[in-house]
Amino acid sequence: MEESKETQENNQLPKEEKQAAEKSKSNPMLFVGIAVAAVVVIGGFLLTRKQKDTIQESIQGTETEAQLPEESNERVDEQTVEESSELLDEEEINIIEVEGGAYYFEPNEIRVKKGETVRIVFTNAGESHNFIIDELNVKTKVTQTGEKAEVEFTANEAGEYKFYCSVNNHRAMGMEGTLIVE
Fold first, then answer.
1. Are 98 and 107 in contact (CB under 8 A)?
2. Which of 27, 180, 12 is nearest to 110 (CA)?
3. CA dihedral 6, 7, 11, 17 (to 10 degrees)
4. 25-29, 93-97, 156-160, 174-178: which has the minimum mean pLDDT?
5. Which of 34, 35, 64, 138 could form a disulfide with 133 if both were Cys (CB 3.0 to 4.6 A apart)?
6. Beta strands in the chain (DSSP E)
7. CA 45, CA 41: separation in Å to the nearest integer?
8. DSSP letters of 1-49?
9. Residue 70: what are its φ and ψ, rounded to 5°?
10. Is the peptide bond before 107 cis (omega within 30 degrees of 0)?
11. Mean pLDDT lowest for which of 16-25, 42-51, 122-131, 133-142?
């Protein structure tokens, strides 16, 4: 039989070099481990540096704002008013928490006012579920046990709308309710 070229070369190497060559072939995980460690160290360094830069920018921004002339402070005040009104708008949203579990919604009847912005915070209490109101184009993703999903909409027309879970036959098993827009 013919020996491979590599086997012939290995036979010509001294015993210590053969052992070193075999060790390097048998430990590819060592190289992977070293590469992963290098990535972690470099990533940690970059993350720390970015956080440090962000802190310095924040400190400099505070110092600059304190040194602005009065006209510039008026612009800052206008921006603050806009941000405050956004917060007020956020407060005007009717946030409704709904739990869905083994073929139920709690509550299974929801009442809102016409024209009101509504945010449904759907919490899954078990299995796979979602929350859907077809007529209002409201739909959450399918969630798993313990997950939450949110959907926001404006209830523009008065009426009664069915909400349900579209997973498998959950709706037929009683997983539905009614949204009433007054």
1. yes
2. 180
3. 50
4. 25-29
5. 138
6. 94-101, 104-106, 109-112, 117-124, 132-133, 138-139, 148-154, 159-164, 176-181
7. 6
8. -PPPHHHHHHHHS-HHHHHHHHHHHH-HHHHHHHHHHHHHHHHHHHHHH
9. -55, -40
10. yes
11. 16-25
Q: Is the pLDDT of residue 137 over 80?
A: yes
Q: How far apart are CA 125 and CA 170, in angstroms?
A: 14
pTM of the predicted model over 0.90? no
Burial (CB < 10 A; 0-12, 13-18, 19+), residue 126, is: middle
β-pairing, 176-181 vs 94-101, is unpaired
Mean pLDDT of 65-87: 49
- The CA angle 171-142-163, to the nearest 5 degrees, is 40
Selection from 118, 123, 134 nearest residue 166 by Cα: 134
Model confidence over 28-69: pLDDT tens digits? 677 777 777 777 777 666 766 666 655 555 555 544 444 444
Average pLDDT, the chain: 77
Q: How far apart are CA 146 and CA 141, in angstroms?
A: 14
